[in-house]
Design goal:
Order of helices and strands: HEEHEHHEHEHEHEHEHHH
Helix content: 25-40%
Strand content: 15-25%
CATH superfamily: Thiamin diphosphate (ThDP)-binding fold, Pyr/PP domains
Mean pLDDT: 93
Strand order of the largest sheet: 2-1-3-4-6-5-8-7
Number of domains: 1
CATH topology: Rossmann fold
Structural class: alpha/beta
Number of helices: 11
Largest sheet: 8 strands, mixed
CATH class: Alpha Beta
C-alpha cells in the first residue's frame, strides 16, 4: 500500500548510510499511526540527518545548526493541534544544540525528538561529535578523542524528561514502536537512534552497533533510579524504553494563553485584533 508520506526523488546520502534505514522506520511509524498529513510538521537543524524531512512528503522547517528545538517549541505553542517531530543528528542536537536540549527538557513541550546518533560529524567530514567514543582518531582528533562522551539518555533522565528511549537501525521493529509510542506520548519524548556513518566512522559500523547492543527486558520505565542506572550501561548498550513519566504538565498547558482558552492562537481572530489595537 502506498505511503502518502514518502517522497520520490534523489537522496543525497552516501550508499549504505544508516540514514536510509531510519528514514524507512520513521515513514513506517507515521503511516501506521495514520497521522493527519495536514497537521504534521517535522523540524530539523543542519547536517546529513537534518536533511531527513526534505526526503518525506511532510510540512517541515529546516533551521540553523543546533536550533531545531526552539523552533519546534514555538511551532507547537502557536498551534498545539499539530504533531511536531524533530529529526536531527547527534552533533546538531547535543553539540551546537546542547543548551536548547537541556532547556527543552525542562520546559517539556509536547514534541517528539528523534536523534540520528552515528557518533561522528557526517556533513562536515568526520570530526568527533559529542557522542564519539574515547580513543577514536579523526582528521581533527589525530591522537584520538580524550573527552568523555555525552550520555544523552542519562542527561535526559536526570532532568526528568518525560519519555526517554534508545533505538537502532539494526532493530527496525523495536525502533518503530519506540517512535510510535513517543509520538502518542504527551510531553517531551527523546529517541536516540544508533545508525552507522559508513564514510567517516569506520569503528562504529552497522556490525559494531549490532554486536554492542541488546534489548531491555524486565524493566519498569517508571522507576527513575533504575532507568538512570540502565542509561549508564555501555559495551553493550541497552535498547528500548528507559524512562516514562506520564504526570508532567506540558509546556503549552503551563502558559497563561492556554490555561484560559485551549484554542490555537491562529484561530483567535478577535483576540489578535485586540492585541494589535493595543499596540497602536
Amino acid at each position: 500500500m502506498e505511503n502518502i508520506f514518502e517522497r520520490q526523488g534523489e537522496i543525497a546520502w552516501c550508499p549504505g548510510c544508516g540514514n536510509f534505514g531510519l528514514r524507512k522506520i520513521v515513514l513506517s511509524a507515521i503511516k501506521e499511526l495514520n497521522l493527519d498529513q495536514k497537521n504534521l510538521v517535522f523540524v530539523s537543524g543542519i547536517g546529513q540527518a537534518a536533511k531527513a524531512p526534505q526526503y518525506m512528503n511532510v510540512h517541515y522547517f529546516n533551521g540553523l545548526h543546533g536550533r531545531a528545538l526552539p523552533a519546534a517549541t514555538g511551532i507547537k505553542i502557536a498551534n498545539p493541534e499539530l504533531t511536531v517531530i524533530v529529526e536531527s543528528g547527534d552533533g546538531d542536537m547535543y553539540g551546537e544544540g546542547g543548551n536548547h536540549f537541556l532547556h527543552s527538557i525542562r520546559r517539556n513541550p509536547d514534541i517528539t525528538v528523534i536523534v540520528h546518533n552515528n557518533m561522528v560529524y557526517g556533513l562536515t567530514k568526520g570530526q568527533a561529535s559529542p557522542t564519539s567514543q574515547k580513543g577514536m582518531v579523526t582528521p581533527i582528533q589525530v591522537e584520538g578523542v580524550f573527552e568523555t562522551p555525552v550520555n544523552p539518555l542519562a542527561l535526559a533522565i536526570s532532568l526528568d524528561a518525560s519519555y526517554v528511549a534508545r533505538g537502532s537501525v539494526g532493530e527496525p521493529e523495536l525502533t518503530k514502536e519506540l517512535i510510535k509510542n513517543a509520538i502518542l506520548h504527551k510531553g517531551f519524548a527523546l529517541i536516540d537512534v544508533f545508525q552507522a556513518c559508513v564514510s567517516f566512522n569506520k569503528i562504529n559500523t552497522h556490525k559494531w552497533f549490532k554486536e554492542n547492543t541488546y534489548k531491555i527486558e524486565n524493566h519498569n520505565p517508571e522507576d527513575k533510579v533504575k532507568a538512570f542506572e540502565l542509561a549508564l550501561k555501555e559495551y553493550p548498550f541497552p535498547l528500548g524504553l528507559f524512562y516514562l513519566n506520564r504526570n508532567k504538565i506540558v509546556f503549552e498547558d503551563n502558559l497563561p494563553l492556554y490555561r484560559r482558552n485551549k484554542e490555537s492562537l491562529y484561530k483567535r481572530k478577535n483576540e489578535i485584533k485586540e492585541i494589535l489595537k493595543s499596540k497602536k
